[in-house]
Design goal:
9 helices, globular, 8 strands, alpha/beta, eight-stranded parallel sheet
Length: 271
Amino acid sequence: MIIDTHCHLASAQFDQSRREAYVEHALREDIDRMITLGARPDDWEANTAWARQFPGVVFCALGIHPDDAHEAPEGWADRLSRMAQDIPLAAIGETGLDYFHGAPRGWEPDSFRRLQQNLLEQHFDLAARLGLNIVLHTRDRKGSRSFEDALAIARNHAGRVRPVFHCFIGDTAQAARIFDELDGMVSFTGVATFKNAPVVAETARWCPEDRIMLETDSPYLSPEPLRGRMNEPAHLIHTARFIAASRGMELDELARATTQNAETFYNLDKG
């Protein structure tokens, strides 16, 4: 059994009238649990609805994506805390730093980056208060500034909150810093299967067995041989097979390791 540790089931790209079908597709491929990420306050309820409908199969994590930092409403952390009392959360996030996209209208790039950084600090504080770990997004147009800044912020909370750098596309040196400096994790998407992403494949091959998890980031980033199609949790099996083969492992071995890692990091009920 394999856990899809990061998907966006409330996305408009998923036909919400076909929820049972998406779950059935996943279970048919031995993807037995999924974590759906809410990245805006206006989609939090939609994500928790999935978890309520499929208890023990779909879990959720909630946060505010860095691209939407300027739209974070006053009192968002208090609202999220109240929601966490009503339905258990797997983690805080998706949050992080995104320097790939330009600043929104009315914002200077430097000031918007500072806003993202402040929001990320608030997410770490909230995660610490709730006793949860955190899901980080970092993205740069060039270089690795968002990664370095997120690493620095995460170091302020080392020992209290563990991060996972989701959709990890960094090299082995960056991964080693996450493990050594933060006791953190990385998770890999279908990008690892892309022919134009050899660095990601190499990092997935190199990572210690107890530090990696698997995800789709669906509806985005379908793996080979489905690249270009809408992604869904069932497609994680292709990424899992590719990474297992590249590491010289049986699929069942990789499934056991990544499942154990996810159960521990996200405090999931054992399947």
